[in-house]
């Protein structure tokens, strides 16, 4: 099933929603319409009971090459704030999604594209992919708020302060991505991982995502307690009972 958008494609089938950025002539640079469409597609995928996993990727030579500079040029502080608050909103929407989100990163993931990529739960990068928070090169910053939680302060400082492009292999070495694959195998690998996730309890995956994300917002002890609470909520549910029964019977679970 395909939903109609202008700057993205939303394809749904076999438990997977693919959100494909589709402004290839601009290297999928973000404009306000595309930003709104990404948020709307996420809402559709998140509310669809048939969808178990979301995959995000780009069409053409880029994942998202960043913001459309022609829109940002000449903005004052207030105008930029109104434009840029989308990055906070989309990050929170992605982190708050009840479904696992896989980033299948092809080509460039710069600026706002890096924000989107690093807001997914798992990242498969094509060998030719490049990442970067290069805003420092045009007089502002992005990434300083969330990158230290992913790679630590010093790696984050390197990314944010130098504003250099990072290859897929470098990103893997930093712990920014989970897998690096040949370019032509990117989507196949993402779908393979989605298939593995679909064999897990949807409720347990949702709870795991919540606990992983709360690590960024609270102390370790509070996060440990929160994990205890949500893990307790998993037990006794039909999904948990079936998962344990299937494990004992040495068969795949049936959700």
TrEMBL record:
Q: Which residues form a coiled coil?
A: none
Write the protein's name. Enoyl-CoA hydratase
**SUPFAM superfamilies attached here?**
ClpP/crotonase
Q: What is the lineage of its organism?
A: unclassified sequences, metagenomes, ecological metagenomes
The record's GO molecular-function terms, alphabetically, read:
catalytic activity
Any Gene Ontology biological process: fatty acid beta-oxidation
């Amino acid at each position: 099933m395909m939903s109609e958008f202008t700057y993205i494609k939303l394809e749904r089938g076999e438990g997977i929603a693919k959100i494909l950025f589709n402004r290839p002539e601009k290297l999928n640079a973000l404009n306000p319409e595309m930003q709104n469409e990404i948020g709307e597609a996420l809402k559709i995928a998140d509310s669809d009971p048939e969808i178990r996993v979301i995959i995000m990727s780009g069409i053409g030579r880029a994942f998202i090459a960043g913001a459309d500079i022609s829109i940002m040029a000449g903005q004052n502080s207030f105008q930029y704030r109104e434009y840029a608050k989308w990055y906070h909103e989309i990050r929170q929407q992605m982190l708050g999604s009840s479904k696992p989100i896989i980033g299948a990163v092809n080509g460039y993931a710069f600026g706002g594209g890096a924000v989107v990529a690093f807001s997914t739960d798992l990242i498969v990068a094509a060998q030719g992919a490049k990442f970067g928070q290069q805003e420092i090169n045009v007089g502002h910053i992005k990434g300083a708020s969330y990158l230290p939680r992913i790679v630590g302060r010093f790696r984050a400082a390197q990314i944010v302060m130098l504003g250099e492009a990072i290859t897929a292999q470098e990103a893997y070495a930093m712990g920014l991505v989970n897998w690096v694959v040949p370019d032509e195998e990117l989507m196949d690998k993402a779908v393979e991982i989605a298939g593995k996730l679909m064999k897990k309890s949807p409720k347990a995956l949702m709870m795991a995502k919540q606990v992983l994300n709360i690590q960024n917002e609270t102390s370790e002890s509070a996060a440990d307690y929160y994990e205890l609470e949500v893990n307790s909520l998993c037990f006794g549910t039909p999904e948990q009972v079936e998962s344990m029964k299937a494990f004992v019977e040495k068969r795949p679970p049936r959700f």
